[in-house]
Amino acid sequence: MSTSTALSSSRHRAAIFRALRHRNYRLFFIGQLISLTGTWMQSVAQGWLVLRLSDSPFLLGAAAAANSLPVLLLSLFAGTIADRFPKRRILLITQSTAMVLAAILAFLTFSSVVQIWHVLILALLLGVVNAFDAPARQAFTVEMVGREDLLNAIALNSSIFNGARTVGPALAGMVVAWIGEGPAFLFNALSFGAVLTSLLLMRLDTQLHRGSQRGGMLRAGLAYIAGEPHVRALLLRAGAVSFFCFVHIPLLPIFARDILQIGATGLGWLSAASGCGSLVAALILAQLRDDAPRGKLLSIAATMYAPLLIMFTQVRSLSFALLFIGLCGWAGVTTMALTNTLIQLTVPDELRGRVMSVFTLLLMGLSPLGGMLAGSIAELVGSVPTVIAGSAVIGWLLVLLVEWQTPQLRRL
Hints:
The chain contains 16 helices and no strands.
């Protein structure tokens, strides 16, 4: 390899990981990588546990919806909390609480006393935690890296989220198939120690990181969104994708067991394939320069998601299922990560927590509700693939409507 080629390769790697030059973000990156692996193990194991206990598509969706209901009810209020109090303090509280909830689920499962209502209540409580955790976490990123490395940090956040989403489900599938769901829940509880340690080791500027005392009212954030057409359109498109196109996520156990007939291990591989596609998307985004056509890439990904999902619902070959679910992962992360970035680059610092709470509501609140609705309809009509494909068509039409009404988004 020539010297110039080696230098070019070195600069390329440095560009991909430039947010890691910030010490606080390096700590956050490592802690999250470990913790999120446990989170994804629990997600897959919980879905299989619900299906084993209930044999009901509706309850699969209901477990996901129980997690999202508090996000819908509380995330806007949580955004004002994120703007008024130190975000690290909020994250220490939320992550500690999530650790306790995972430990309780592990204990109930190991004791062989776990019932559906236990899972639903714990999912509801975890939803309360997520409602406060997500806006604070989103807004904390810019405090760790600054605006100049924000896109790279968001892309790297997506890479660790989806790297864990690739490894965690595959591990969970094997663990559940061999020894049951309990060990997956226990690993998740223990993994929170990594992120708590990383938060405690950070050195923060107390002046820079103290909570904003200005504009504490929720209506200030909502008024900003109403008056900013680009942000409003970005949120509407994200909401359409989240509610209508993410419906397959809680229903994947049905595909694994009944449609593709690949069992718990196969469910892990399906989730891992989606995570792999998402990881590829995150690594591509991490390489984008500030002058990259982010708006065009966002439009392409948002428009492609629904057709890819429809193709996934129609195939019965495991190879093609893994391919299309992986491509769905790419489209979904590209859509949401670029939406996140473009909103954060637009919104004023003092309103960031409140505006990101709306994004959190759309991403984490609407998606499981869409899954529960799809599961309810599927239980009535008896065909999960048909219901998911129909939902994807509706989402696709709404995305195309936003594209038609706001073509300027492609120039962002």
